Amino acid sequence: MAYKILTADDSKMVRMIVTKTLKPHDCEITEASNGQEAIEAARSMNPDLIVLDITMPDMTGFDVLEVLRGEEATKETNVLMLTAESGNQAVAKADELGVSGYVAKPFKPEALLAQVGKILNFAPQTA
Cα–Cα distance between 127 and 123 in angstroms, integer? Predict the structure, then answer.
């Protein structure tokens, strides 16, 4: 069974790296380029995990997370923050909103894969 993962980031390059990193590990990836797309995709696909940036143009990742946490269908969805916002205040707010993990940009694909594996409880396949 493939894991359904939503990656939401305004950077096409970051979304591409996330997809390239996770797709070979039985992960079905859906991409969103802004907060509103992320909310709509999360509502329709019921993902196992959302990989979410904080800094996006239309609404922040925190705004997205607050909307999703307020809805019955998505309130328990695993969220991994993947963001350049790595200060104590951002990490504390992410924890307060119940994120499952946090990876700071710039990041190594191996670090992302390790966090996703931990959250979804799977051992990543190595080549």
Answer: 13
